[in-house]
TrEMBL record:
Gene3D superfamilies: NAD(P)-binding Rossmann-like Domain (3.40.50.720). It comes from Mycena belliarum. Belongs to the saccharopine dehydrogenase family. GO terms for cellular component: lipid droplet; mitochondrion; plasma membrane. The chain crosses the membrane at residues 287-310. GO terms for biological process: glycolipid biosynthetic process. Pfam families: Sacchrp_dh_NADP (PF03435). This is Saccharopine dehydrogenase-domain-containing protein. The keyword Cytoplasm does not apply.
Length: 433
């Protein structure tokens, strides 16, 4: 019998790390893998084991992510690494490089496009040589965005009876949740430590994609999405995760387009694909106010004295929502994807995919998302993962896990997914968002 897979969780003593550790230890599949926890302090690791009631079968590793030799030693015995140690720009690159060197799979929680751009540049090719599957953004950033667009494209193909090009794919978010000190640290670091040129490059359309697509439309002040099956129109404003999620979905698009150029049998979204998303509000006035409020809030972080004060007043690293607040949280993501009209198919097909999740999206639900992503990579049946995953590289949730991740998430009972055709109407009658 082969040895069990080892799931190594780095940052196990942090706020989100503890949630993931508890989730994995009590997982129905826990007998199929060995859980290993890594952090800088042995005392804090022992406290996590005691506080969460973990058993002696859990492996403990003292790992200072600022010391490459400790990272390599811990990673060398793992099958997959779950990295929660942020900000990732500062601490993630050496962990990815160790995983690539040892052929170990990797998932993380990053929403830092600059960091993803760096590991794509440095590690994608090397990972295809060692077979390491490297998947950033496996939490609320950016599983719902990537997977709903992926499922809508799949439903479109099923409805059309074959390949079909996508025109637009737009997601509307309804969320209830809090934020932690780690989130604040990431925002501050982006301003104080990431070079301005790196931030500028990351904001460029398709910055993470191996191919260049059609330019994205400008973000409107008020978004509107008409849902043909209900006759309702969702209204909303700028969603602060939009740029991060869009870049990740664009990487999925680019990876699939590049693969399809070499093998026409490969599934892809088509050259006309454009992705966008927004946060749902009670009406257009609130949409405008939310957009302006977000702009003012982010602008405040750019002013050094205000940023210093906010760092003192806002949650510190290791702090986050209470257990009661986490249980009260939820997400609902509605994606509407429309096919390209053509002489052969003059009536574009529209698909609505809805993903819901219970628990604070950024924390308790994220613990579910990233854990199931990691387990998808190590427990999937041979050949079950998407074709791109079999070659390794810096991938995305959709291209690395696809249906395997969807099935695992639904099986938890915490996530529901529905994808269906909602309308087929002539091009001239099509609404735009």
């Amino acid at each position: 019998m082969s040895a069990k897979s080892v799931v190594l969780l780095l940052g196990a003593t942090g706020f989100t790390g503890r949630l993931i550790a508890k989730y994995l230890y009590t997982h129905p599949d826990s007998a199929s893998f060995t859980l290993a926890l890594g952090a800088r302090s042995k005392d804090r690791l022992d406290a996590v084991v005691s506080d969460l009631g973990l058993g002696s079968d859990v492996q403990l590793h003292v790992v200072d992510v600022g010391r490459p030799e400790q990272i390599r030693a811990a990673v060398s015995s793992a099958t997959v690494v779950i990295n929660t140690v942020g900000p990732f720009w500062s601490w993630g690159t050496s962990i990815v490089e160790a995983c690539v060197s040892h052929g170990v799979h990797y998932v993380d929680l990053t929403g830092e496009t600059e960091y993803i751009k760096r590991i794509v540049t440095r590690s994608h090719y090397a990972a295809t040589k060692t077979g390491a599957i490297i998947v950033p953004s496996c939490g609320f950033d950016s599983v719902p965005a990537d997977i709903t667009a992926y499922l809508s494209s799949k439903t479109l193909r099923d409805a059309a009876g074959g390949p079909v090009d996508i025109d637009t794919s737009v997601s509307a978010y309804v969320v209830k949740g809090g934020f932690s000190g780690g989130t604040i640290a990431t925002v501050v670091q982006a301003i104080e430590k990431i070079p301005a040129d790196e931030r500028r490059i990351a904001r460029i359309d398709y910055s993470l994609s191996p191919a260049r697509g059609i330019p994205s439309p400008r973000s409107p002040l008020v978004y509107r999405m008409f849902l043909p099956d209900t006759g309702k129109t969702l209204v909303g404003g700028f969603w602060f995760m939009r740029n991060t999620n869009r870049s990740l979905v664009q990487r999925t698009w680019g990876l699939l387009e590049t693969a399809a150029a070499l093998d026409t049998a490969q599934v892809h979204y088509g050259p006309a694909f454009k992705y966008d998303e927004f946060i749902v509000t009670a009406g257009p006035v609130r949409a405008v106010l939310m957009t302006l409020g977000l702009a003012i809030g982010l602008g405040a972080f750019l002013i050094t004295p205000i940023r210093w004060l906010l760092k003192k007043l806002l949650p510190q690293s290791g702090e986050g929502p209470t257990e009661a607040a986490q249980k009260a949280g939820f997400m609902k993501v509605t994606n509407l994807t429309t096919s390209v009209a053509s002489p052969a198919r003059p009536a574009p097909i529209q698909v609505k995919t809805v993903m819901t999740g219970t628990g604070d999206p950024g924390y308790s639900l994220t613990a579910v998302l990233i854990s199931e992503a990691a387990l998808s990579l190590v427990l999937a049946a041979p050949g079950a993962l998407p074709p791109l995953a079999r070659g390794g590289g810096v991938l995305t949730p959709a291209t690395a896990m696809g249906d395997v991740l969807v099935e695992r998430l639904v099986a938890t009972g915490r996530v529901t997914v529905e994808s269906k055709v909602v309308v087929a109407r002539p091009l001239e009658g099509k609404k735009t968002v």
